[in-house]
Write a structure and sequence with these properties.
By secondary structure, the protein is mostly helical. The protein has 15 helices and no strands. It has a single domain, classed as Up-down Bundle (Growth Hormone, Chain: A). The radius of gyration is 19 Å and the shape is globular.
């Protein structure tokens, strides 16, 4: 008999495995720029390709899961992710790395999208925010470990060997999900692809859901823009951090592990709009603090930024499950597409701003985007 606790552990593992590889190149960007004689914007595409692929395939994966079941898709995605991850270790050109990063991005929605739908179906409404918070904690830990493990392995063994290590972790996570995650008990199978497409048509006419998708766009835009070009900011004088030191900067993600589980209680007290207001204020204050050219101040600022971002992320995902009562995989697929499209656009636009006006320009850009997301919440979440 699989206990509720074991199911929650599996949800946490799913969150961690989904985000282990998504941003793993961020701490390696200066190394990749030197290896392939490329610019910051060019190697920044290693982040964009993964997020773009995720955005493109998420609705299709959601529809597939609605037809064939949750666990099958989650486990298949986790295990297939091993192949392109190991393949990057053999890549001899930046173009090859970009193609393999795109393939990684094709696998990730099978974990991310379907697990959120699984939670929405398998837990009662009053427990859902807590379980989503646990899942978000897993995504935070996975994102941090992907960056930290890759950075440490790159310094000790080489950047290629870093992807071998990540691939082995992917394999262990996939096997753990196969063993621990029970089949969905409340899953209602979609009869056909036509039914799934009809669900998409219904969802896109839901203003609250579409606003939530827009908020998701702003959340990942802010996260990717900040931490991608924040890496270059900290690699330059007066900081001049090493690859390992850059990896340890992402330990600030642990603030998300702490903040995400308590976000549900926060929303119960002050509402989702109030929670978003607090989150955006926290992130904006953190970004402004990074302008102080003193490393402890920058780290504190990034910690505040991460705390606000992960509270916003928990608010968005819990709003989807509270808004949609049918075809949740399709709804989450739409959200994930918007979310990762935001990450893709954020990496590119922030790269252009970085080249034109450096880190202060990136800070101004991200604060503007966060305020736009807050405006959507104020209008559509009340």
């Amino acid at each position: 008999m699989i206990t509720l606790d074991r199911r929650r552990i599996a949800v946490f593992v799913a969150g961690a495995s989904a985000f282990l590889d998504m941003y793993c190149t961020q701490a390696l960007l200066p190394d990749l720029a030197r290896q392939f004689h490329a610019s910051a914007t060019e190697v920044g595409l290693t982040v964009t390709m993964a997020t773009l692929a995720t955005a493109l395939v998420a609705p299709l994966i959601g529809g597939l899961a609605d037809m064939i079941g949750r666990k099958r898709v989650i486990v298949a995605g986790a295990l297939l992710l091993v192949l392109p991850t190991l393949g990057i270790a053999l890549a001899d050109t930046l173009s090859t790395v970009l193609v393999l990063r795109f393939l990684q991005g094709l696998c990730i929605p099978a974990i991310f999208t379907v697990t959120v739908a699984y939670v929405g179906e398998e837990w009662p409404g009053h427990e859902m925010p807590a379980v989503i918070g646990l899942y978000t904690s897993g995504t935070v830990l996975g994102g941090m470990m992907g960056r930290l493990v890759s950075a440490l392995a790159a310094d000790m063994l080489g950047w290629r060997e870093a992807f071998v290590v990540l691939g082995l972790i992917n394999l262990a996570a996939g096997l753990a999900l196969w063993a621990m995650l029970p089949p969905a008990r409340n899953f209602v199978r979609s009869d056909s692809l036509t039914a799934t497409l009809h669900a998409f048509a219904v969802h896109v006419r839901n203003p609250r859901l579409m606003a939530t998708c827009g908020i998701g766009f702003t959340v990942l835009f802010a996260l990717i823009a900040s931490f991608t070009y924040g890496t270059f900011y900290l690699a330059q004088p007066p900081f001049s951090l090493s690859t390992s030191a850059l990896g340890f900067i992402f330990v600030v993600y642990l603030m998300g592990v702490v903040s995400a589980p308590v976000a549900g209680a926060l929303f119960a007290r002050i509402g989702r709009v109030g929670g978003m207001t607090l989150a955006v204020g926290c992130s904006s204050a953190g970004l402004l603090l990074t302008l102080v050219t003193w490393l402890p101040a920058v780290i504190a600022g990034l910690a505040l930024l991460a705390t606000g971002i992960f509270i916003s992320q928990t608010a968005s995902m819990s709003t989807i499950n509270a808004t949609v009562t049918h075809s949740r995989s399709a709804a989450v697929g739409l959200y994930v597409t918007s979310y990762y499209l935001g990450g893709s656009v954020g990496a590119v636009v922030a790269g252009l701003v970085w080249q034109a006006s450096g880190w202060p320009g990136c800070v101004a850009l991200v604060i503007t985007i966060l305020l736009a997301g807050l405006g959507l919440a104020a209008k559509f979440w009340r």
